[in-house]
Amino acid sequence: MGADAHAKLIKAEAKRLGFLSCGISRAGFLEEEAPRLERWLKAGMHGEMGWMENHFDKRLDPTLLVPGAKSVVSLLLNYYPAEQQPESTYQVSKYAYGEDYHRVIKDRLRELLHVIRTEIGEVEGRAFVDSAPVLDKAWAARSGLGWMGKHSNLLTKEVGSYYFIAELILDLELPPDAPVTDHCGTCTACIDACPTQAITEPYVVDGSKCISYYTIELKSEIPASASGQWADWIFGCDICQDVCPWNRFATPHSEPRFNAHPELMEMTRADWEELTEEVFRQVFPKSAVKRTKFSGLKRNIAFLSDGDTASENDFERE
């Protein structure tokens, strides 16, 4: 088989495995993203996420992660839920309703890589799911899977932005796909709706002001200045995606492992405020919510219910 046939095989297998779409780009240094990432870090927009400063070169050059890499295969997996939490209760980001996406996607990527090696031959490569120094959205955009929206999420005309991004970096030469054009136009819905003004300008998000940062990444005490800005979010935030016009095309996923625990859909504000560690384990057995731990989730709930910052001493550090 030639390179075109290899690409056709990979995309067909990706579809069979349930991926929303698959695109290919040439592995190489991300020249346009390098100065943007450097400015973002120098401005301190990563907050306490010190790990964002690590492996700067690897984030921009996949050949440093996979020696001899020639292609980046980007994949999207839908997570938009058929059922959502009532608006009257505390909110968990939709991506965390069910099982941790790292587990679900890694299983599929391993199978895809196995098929590639079985059908094509000896191919060296690695699978990545938001857990290594890879600029997922940049590669997906280069692969023609969408464009970077003003909220800095990847957007696709047909389905919006409620999907996970993953990659296979391979030493296999494949024909690259062409990027798509930006279709945000003059819309500023995401900028206008962000309650913490984290989108400082179109296409630039100050991560240290994002509700997702406060509720997941921040391990020290929550600043009092954030009080009253969060709405009801206790893990993550979907506001900029919820208001995006392109997400009117989002359709429910078909992955049972992403389905929420029934109890999550029924929890009231009082249930959350009285949350015990036993119920936490029951409702979020394999969920990404475990990243913030029980103590972190309780901190977030207390911050919203009391209007006070939780003590750093009460928060269990990772």
From TrEMBL:
Q: Which residues are [4Fe-4S] cluster 2-binding?
A: C194, C210, C237, C240
Sorted alphabetically, the Gene Ontology cellular component annotations on this record are: cytoplasm
**Cofactor binding comment, as recorded:** Binds 2 [4Fe-4S] clusters per monomer.
Q: Which residues form the active site?
A: D130
Query: Which catalysed reactions does the entry list for this protein?
Result: epoxyqueuosine(34) in tRNA + AH2 = queuosine(34) in tRNA + A + H2O
One Pfam family of this chain: Fer4_16
Subcellular location(s): the record lists: Cytoplasm
Name the Enzyme Commission number(s) assigned to this protein: 1.17.99.6
Q: Where does tRNA bind?
A: K219
Tell me, what is one Gene Ontology molecular-function annotation carried by this entry?
A: epoxyqueuosine reductase activity
Q: Which residues form a coiled coil?
A: none
Known pathway: tRNA modification; tRNA-queuosine biosynthesis
User: Which class of enzymes does this protein belong to?
Assistant: oxidoreductase
Q: Where is the 4Fe-4S ferredoxin-type domain?
A: 174-204
Q: Which positions does UniProt annotate for cob(II)alamin binding?
A: R59, D130, L154, I165, S212, C237, D238
Provide the residue positions that the database annotates as binding [4Fe-4S] cluster 1: C184, C187, C190, C244
Keyword line: 4Fe-4S, Cobalamin, Cobalt, Cytoplasm, Iron, Iron-sulfur, Metal-binding, Oxidoreductase, Queuosine biosynthesis, tRNA processing
Q: Give a GO biological-process term.
A: tRNA queuosine(34) biosynthetic process
Give a short account of what the protein does.
Answer: Catalyzes the conversion of epoxyqueuosine (oQ) to queuosine (Q), which is a hypermodified base found in the wobble positions of tRNA(Asp), tRNA(Asn), tRNA(His) and tRNA(Tyr).
The record's PANTHER family line, in alphabetical order, gives: EPOXYQUEUOSINE REDUCTASE
Q: Which family does it belong to?
A: Belongs to the QueG family.
The UniProt entry, under NCBIfam families, shows: tRNA epoxyqueuosine(34) reductase QueG (TIGR00276)
Q: What is this protein called?
A: Epoxyqueuosine reductase
